[in-house]
Structure formats: C-alpha cells, structure tokens
Amino acid sequence: MSRKLIQIAVNIFAVILGLIIFSAGMSKLYFLHQFPKIIGPVNIEEQLAEFGLSLLAQCIAYSQVIIGFILITLMFRTLGAILLTPMIFMICVVTISFEMYPTNYLVAIMLVLNLLILMYDWKKFAPILGYEYKGHPIKHHGNIRIYELTWLLGLGLSLFSIHISYYDWLIAYSLVFLGVAISLWSHYKRNKLSTTKNKAH
Fold first, then answer.
1. What is the mean pLDDT of residues 19-27?
2. What is the pTM of this model?
3. In terms of Cα–Cα distance, which of 84, 64, 82 is closest to 124?
C-alpha cells in the first residue's frame, strides 16, 4: 500500500473518530440535546448535578467538542489523537465495567483506530518519548499563521452555535457546518502552502 493511500486512510480514521466524539459532546450541550449523535448519554449533566458535579459534566462535553473538532478538521490531527487517548481509554474501561454491549466493542474499535493514527504520526512526537527523529523541520511562514487563526474562527463558530441552539436550531446547525467548512478549508490551504514553500527551499 502506498504512503498516499495510508495517509488517506489515517485521515478517514481521524474524521470518523472526530464525528463520533464531536457529536457526543454537542448532543450534551445543545438545547434539549437536539444534536445528532452516534454514541454516549446526552443527560450526563443532569445525572451528575445530583452530586454537585454539573461543571465537570460541562467540561467533559466541551472537551469532546474541541477534541472532535480537531480530528474532523485534520489540521492538528496528531494533537487531537493524543488528547483523545486518555478519554477514549477511560470510556472503554467504563463500558467494559458496566457490560455495555455492543457499545464497548465500538469504543474498543475507536481506541484501536486512535492508536493507528498515533503510530502513523509517531515521528511528530518522537523527541517527547526520548527518540531522535532526523527529519526536515517544518518551516513556518506568516501566511500559514493566518490559516491557523482562520481555523480557530471555525472552532469558535461551532462553540458559539451551542448558545444559539437555545434560540434557533437552524442557525445553530448552519454555524456548525460553516465552522467545520472554514476550518477544513484552512487546513487545505495551510497544507498546500506549507508543501509549496518547503519544496521551494
């Protein structure tokens, strides 16, 4: 299998994981939980509120949204996979402990996909693990920073849509779609510019 096909497969894994985690978080935070989801309970805040832990529930949900968004939009895929690892591992332990069939199998598959992403991207964080990686350093350019800021705008729109969902679902969903589209476009432009600049050097 060519490196290009492997890279495409890894990106597909990241987007799939991102959609699952992103939708799980958004469904917890949207008004009346009216956001499509694949897995996960939506009323975790209500359940934890009985123990005075509603803030914890919100932190979990927002973490899922941000990590999921990072994976969907691919620009910081490695960071998203690193952040997802402890979260998905703990979810896996919980689903196994409570014998939540077949959810535990789905979560186990998600954990494997996430580990495959990390294996593919290991060179990006090899020095953290004490390994020396002799590769070409990434050359940063001013225009690349602009696309990274544009990516943040997309994330901001998606987060802002949570509050808008309490007033208008159509506008809220539109903001999510627009936010993801902007960030995907930013990733594409940043990648293209980075590749062109590095080839030129």
1. 95
2. 0.88
3. 82
